[in-house]
Design a protein that fits this description.
heterodimer; A: 264 residues; alpha/beta; Rossmann fold; nine-stranded mixed β-sheet; two-stranded antiparallel sheet; 7 helices; 11 strands; 23% helix; 22% strand; B: 997 residues; alpha+beta; seven-stranded mixed β-sheet; 31% helix; 24% strand
């Protein structure tokens, strides 16, 4: 491991709006962050290969018109797809949070396994935007530095965060078995929960985030990057939500997944 | 430039147009096995409106595609762009085809009327490019909503009911699915030139007729001033010039009433004149006078830009603005509130060289929730529907902008049934060096952002008039539909261009559109504009329409010619349209051209200073109200749950959770607090720069129920409440700036104006006493509604917004209890006045003396409480507001609750409260006397706190216990016990743990 700082490419697009806090969290985790507009990247997708981690922040790309993340997903797939696949093949990491997760999933980068039932992210069961703190339980496939059962406090803030499958219950179990579930919503005791408000979206199996089996493509709905400090917690760190902010350590965990030649 | 296409076109150009082709109709409907909350809600709304229907409704989203696409292209559009692969199935009908009559007649399609912005269709049109498809030349897309009824229904009744239940007739129409649909026709461009309007020879009657017929909203004195001006000039005005005057001189833009001369007479109930005072400029001599006298060095910009600016650090300031968007929201709650947020955000973007928004607020005043449908005045919507619409409007606009909506409230009062109020506010950070701006001669007039359409034509003059029964149908053009993503792109471009130094000045297009924006920026220089250069949503706009259109999401910048190319490239990268409309000059004249022909030419001086300002009369009657007849304690306690459930007390969490109040990760003192997030906070604390400790504390106050009794007391109570919220959360009262937003009735009527003058006088007294300068404000003065011959005014409603700056967000406070055995200390004296209080309202006590703050004592209380919080002596703090001590204690228990029997509680002895006058025990528990706080302090810290509070009224009124419950004692006897779950239920807390399945 050299002293060189990992290089993060943070995507920007019309409607992305969680870029500032994600950038701050990555920088606190030790990364050098460059932000490029999707229109600049579409003109020169090879620039993606100058980086170790490609991050898609949250927001409402293209207004979430036609479905959350749908138009951005088309850009990722058709304009940037081969460069992103090459970055990944070289050992780079692809990460999306909230709208970024929706885009990565709808572009087909997640769950990253063939032969699984089709899945989508759609309107919360309440059909409402919902902003509240959530607890995420790390599942076994996520791996280090989040051993199974680790609880991460993060802010859910989305209207279309519900994972849906042709048969929600049966197929969610299939996803668990396939080893692509990174996070499930849970309660204060760390028990997985599928009921509101623990699981704000009604997501199938209470799934909050997915990871490709390689461990280097990851996406989740809630925002760990907003969990910056004890003061940010709803009870100001009195204990129900952990004692300290996790934004930087979460991003450091993502950076630790990088396997590109430069960082080896 | 992006190829964003006009989404739809105005009806005035067409009617059924043979040239409009039948379109492909694509509807994506949820699969039958999927729950459909939208469909369920639609079914409920149809039944609520009187439809006999037992079946279910399946909802969908529809798109019209041009007939030039072949079936394969449509198939690709559906599968690759539109249909969700898991949840939806597609219904595709060829151009000219329709559903079979049986199903089609029961399928309702809700389309936008022509001319209404359709952002989703614009996105779809642009996304075609990603599929390698192109929209045929001159064609558009359209999006709509569909509702398919499954079950027996009367087709005739269906359409009639649906027009109200599922659509807003101002902006939408409902058709059935059994007929083929056509795209809206694109109107042909029309030729326009210079149009002169005969004015010089008109008599008074004809002048007024002209003002009315052209919707100028100018009165006789103003029309005469114009006539004299043109007689002097020796020519007739053009239509563009008349419209420019109408906008610039409108109440909305000029605030003629508040800035004009007034004579106030205070009368005894028998009509005797008790006092008389005159003001030459009411605002300058009251609200602004306080700022001048205080003039602290930390106020960087007051009352001159789009927002006030105060210092956060030496280098960074906070811009603050609160606006109202009342009349548009009455017609279209969703669009009106959304564009209200959009508009105030542009005020922040257009402050100095641009501020970066980091927080929004909203306050809604609507009618009672239980108002029967048949009690609704003609032409109005039910308050609950209005509230649902405005909340959704703020949610969908604010969330998309990435600005957290963190503060606000909902007021219910019968006086708002026909004239709801929507306040929208925003805060942004701005570097000190960016606060000043000035367009320079030679700079280009650059318009960027959204396109210009007929949206909101005459919005400024419309908002200066009263609503009336026909408003709903007559003023469709005044409605503005928002497109938040266009505004978000404008924000991105503007801040980047600002930091690159690409412009000398910038402002937003608000009321009056280009006419106001260019007129204000060029006031000191002069400007010439080629109106035909403005990009249009659709052809056919006359020059004057381009000039005054209030289409949203547009800004104007003064760009030096050498920076234009870089500005243009930056806009292109962000997919923002930008054009050069003209240039700023040095002749202090406004010159307007249309394809080279001069269509308007005015001196800036007369335009901005020529409006006549006659003295207006204001009258206020001094009533001697009786003392409050409080019910005895037993009777009051019977209403304990009702107090917590009163609309002014109950939890607003269900609204707040729909807003992304955490985006930007700046919200460190939350609107709802504690382990479960059910404890209402007082002020909201924001940390706008991550990694820096400085914070902004935001508080709101309004007291219409007190203002109804006494406008002066109401204004002081509003100011006090805003200050309490700020101080309770840790804000520094010595570094607090305030904003005024007056919403009043028609102030041409002396009684309405009288209460306004009293409120303005209270602002001066209160601000001087509290040391809080006003830095910005706005008024909305024609909130009246005509039904037949009767004219009704809203309750006098002054919203005070308080913004405090603190050096370290770690030294702020929250409301939930935090430790057992802490002592509860009530700071401030409780008085016997109960007028306007929640308990008085519930018990039907009748009009009685309202409370008012003690202006000598209150600043000391604020100082002491702030000192205690900053010193870390206080573990929790809550101000006493509606519902008094009882509600505050209950909320602190609910905030500390962790579900089941986990949490903390309170043993409360209200008789120990420090009371003034003859305040009975009931008053000690339920009075809403201002300037009071409930603190918790560890027993070990109590001595330090006590010495700090020594000269002030305060008392230990209880203790924090380890059981999550509120116990109230009187004479040592338990008189009330409620566990946290019961308190949460009474407060209408959504999804409290025991309410879960």
């Amino acid at each position: 491991m050299t002293a060189a700082r990992p290089r993060v490419l943070q995507l920007f697009a019309p409607g992305i709006n969680c870029d500032r806090e994600l950038r701050y969290a990555f920088e606190r985790a030790g990364a050098e962050v460059v932000e490029l507009h999707v229109s600049e990247l579409a003109a020169a997708p090879e620039r993606i290969l100058d980086f170790d981690l490609f991050a898609v922040p949250g927001g409402f790309s293209y207004g979430d018109d036609l479905g959350a993340g749908r138009v951005l997903a088309l850009q990722l797939e058709r304009r940037l797809g081969s460069a992103l696949r090459e970055l990944h093949a070289r050992g780079g990491v692809l990460f999306g949070v909230c709208n970024g997760f929706q885009a990565l999933l709808k572009a087909g980068f997640l769950p990253g396994v063939d032969g699984l039932p089709p899945l989508s992210l759609t309107w919360n069961a309440s059909h409402r935007f919902e902003c509240r703190w959530s607890r995420l339980r790390a599942e076994a496939p996520l791996g280090e530095p989040w051993p199974e059962g680790t609880v991460v406090a993060a802010v859910s803030a989305h209207a279309e965060g519900r994972i849906v499958l042709p048969d929600d219950e049966r197929d969610a179990a299939t996803l668990m078995e396939a080893g692509v579930v990174a996070f499930r919503y849970c309660d204060e005791e760390g028990r997985p929960r599928t009921d509101f408000p623990h699981c704000p979206s009604g997501s199938a199996g209470g799934i909050a985030g997915l990871v490709a089996p390689c461990g280097r493509i990851l996406g989740l709905m809630p925002h760990p990057e907003r969990n910056l400090s004890r003061l940010h917690l709803p009870d100001r760190g009195d204990g129900a939500w952990g004692g300290e902010g996790v934004a930087a350590s979460f991003c450091a965990g993502l950076l630790s997944r990088i396997r590109t030649p430069a960082s080896r | 430039m992006p190829s964003s296409s006009p989404s739809s076109v105005p009806t005035s150009a067409a009617g059924p147009d043979a040239a409009a082709p039948p379109a492909w109709r694509v509807e994506l409907e949820l699969r039958p096995e999927r729950a459909d909350p939208v469909g369920d809600r639609a079914a409920e709304a149809l039944r609520h409106r009187g439809l006999r229907f037992e079946g279910v409704v399946r909802s969908g989203r529809g798109y019209l595609l041009p007939p030039e696409f072949d079936a394969a292209a449509v198939e690709r559009i559906v599968e690759e762009l539109l249909r969700d692969p898991v949840t939806e199935f597609a219904r595709v009908l060829e151009p000219g085809a329709a559903q079979d009559p049986a199903t089609g007649r029961r399928t309702l399609l809700v389309r936008r009327v022509a001319g209404v912005t359709d952002p989703e269709a614009q996105t779809a049109a642009r996304a075609l490019d990603l599929l390698g498809l192109a929209l045929p030349e001159g064609r558009t897309l359209e999006s709509y909503r569909s509702f398919r009824l499954v079950g027996e229904v009367e087709p005739e009744a269906l359409l009639r009911v649906a027009e109200r239940a599922l659509a807003n007739p101002v902006i939408e129409e409902v058709v059935t699915g059994d007929r083929p649909l056509r795209l809206r026709p694109v109107p042909a461009p029309r030729r326009f030139g210079r149009v002169e309007v005969g004015l010089r020879d008109l008599d008074d009657e004809a002048l007024l007729r002209l003002s009315r017929e052209r919707s100028l909203a100018l009165d006789l004195a103003e029309m005469r001033a114009l006539r004299d001006f043109y007689r002097e000039a020796g020519r007739e005005p053009t239509d563009v010039e008349l419209e420019t005057f109408a906008q610039t001189w409108s109440e909305h833009c000029k605030h003629k009433t508040l800035t004009g001369p007034v004579r106030l007479r205070e009368l005894a109930p028998d009509g005797t004149v008790l006092a008389e005072r005159r003001y030459r400029n009411l605002l300058r001599e009251t609200v602004f006078e306080a700022t001048l006298r205080l003039s602290p060095e930390w106020c960087w910009s007051v009352f001159r830009d789009n927002a006030g600016v105060v210092a956060l650090t030496d280098e960074l300031g906070v811009a603050i603005k609160v606006e109202t968007h009342n009349h548009p929201s009455a017609l279209d709650p969703y669009g009106g509130a959304g564009t209200g947020i959009g508009g105030v955000l542009r005020d922040i973007l257009g402050t100095g060289l641009g501020a970066r928004p980091f927080a929004n607020l909203d306050v809604f005043c609507v009618g009672p929730e239980d108002l029967p449908l048949d009690a609704l005045p003609p032409g109005t919507m039910h308050p609950n529907r209005i509230l649902e619409g405005v909340v959704a409007g703020v949610r969908d606009y604010g969330n998309r902008m990435g600005v957290p909506t963190v503060a606000g409230t909902v007021v219910r009062h019968p006086g708002y049934v026909a004239n709801p109020l929507v306040y929208c506010g925003s805060l942004g950070t701005i570097p000190r060096a960016m606060v000043e701006k000035a367009a320079r001669p030679g700079d280009l007039v650059v318009a960027f952002g959204g396109r210009t359409g007929r949206d909101g034509i005459h919005g400024a003059t419309f908002s200066s008039e009263a609503l009336h029964e026909e408003s709903e149908t007559a003023d469709a053009a005044a409605v503005q539909i928002g497109d938040p993503i266009t505004e978000k792109k404008v924000l991105d471009v503007l801040l980047e261009a600002r930091d690159l130094g690409l412009f000398h000045a910038v402002t937003d297009c608000g009321a009056g559109g280009f006419s106001s924006a260019v007129g204000e920026m060029g006031e000191e220089t002069g400007a010439e504009v080629d109106l035909e250069r403005a990009p249009l949503k659709y052809p056919g706009l006359a020059p004057w329409e381009v000039w005054v259109s209030e289409a949203q999401e547009r800004m104007v910048a003064a760009v030096p010619p050498e920076a234009w190319e870089r500005f243009r490239e930056l806009c292109a990268r962000h997919e923002v349209e930008a054009v050069v409309l003209g240039r700023f000059t040095d002749d202090r004249r406004l010159l307007l051209r249309w394809h080279g022909e001069v269509v308007g030419e005015l001196p800036m001086e007369f335009l901005h200073a020529g409006v006549p300002q006659p003295e207006r009369d204001a009258v206020v009657v001094r009533h001697d109200l009786p003392a409050t007849a409080w019910p005895d304690l037993a009777a009051a306690l019977e209403r304990f749950d009702a107090v917590l459930g009163h609309p002014q007390v109950r939890s607003k969490e269900a609204v707040v959770r729909q807003y992304d109040h955490e985006v930007q990760a700046a919200t460190v003192g939350k609107p709802y607090q504690g382990a479960l997030g059910h404890g209402p906070g007082d002020g909201v604390v924001l940390q706008p720069e991550p990694g820096r400790p400085e914070g902004v504390v935001l508080g709101l106050g309004l007291a219409p129920r007190i203002a109804e009794l006494d406008a002066h007391a109401g204004a002081l109570c509003a100011l006090d409440e805003a200050m309490r919220n700020v101080v309770a959360a840790g804000g520094d009262p010595h570094r607090t700036a305030v904003l005024d937003n007056f919403c009043w009735g028609d102030c041409r009527k002396p009684d309405r104006f009288g209460s306004l003058v009293r409120a303005a006088e209270a602002c001066l007294e209160g601000a001087l006493a509290y040391g809080t300068p006003f830095v910005s404000g706005k008024d909305s003065l024609n909130n009246e509604y005509r039904v037949g011959d009767e004219e009704r005014a809203i309750p006098p409603t002054l919203l005070i917004t308080a913004v405090s700056v603190v050096p370290d967000v770690a030294r702020t406070a929250t409301t939930p209890l935090r430790r057992p055995d802490d002592l509860l200390v009530l700071v401030g004296a409780t008085g016997p006045e109960g007028g306007g209080s929640v308990l008085a309202d519930l018990c039907g006590v009748g009009a009685s003396r309202p409370p008012r703050p003690d202006l000598d004592r209150a600043p000391e209380v604020f100082h002491a409480v702030h000192g205690a919080i900053a010193a870390g002596e206080v573990s929790a703090c809550h101000d006493l507001a509606e519902g008094g001590l009882a509600a505050a204690a209950a909320e602190m228990v609910v905030g500390a609750w962790r579900g089941g029997d986990r949490g903390l509680g309170v043993r409360l002895e209200p008789e120990r409260a420090f009371a003034r006058g003859e305040a009975p025990l009931t008053a000690r528990l339920f009075a809403e006397t201002p300037t009071r706080f409930l603190l918790t302090v560890a027993p070990d810290d109590y001595d330090a706190l006590r010495s700090r509070l020594a000269p002030l009224p305060h008392a230990v009124v209880g203790v924090v216990t380890e059981r999550p419950e509120l116990v109230v004692l009187a004479d040592g006897e338990e008189v009330l016990r409620r566990d946290a779950a019961a308190l949460a239920r009474a407060l209408h807390v959504p999804f409290a743990p025991d309410a879960q399945p």
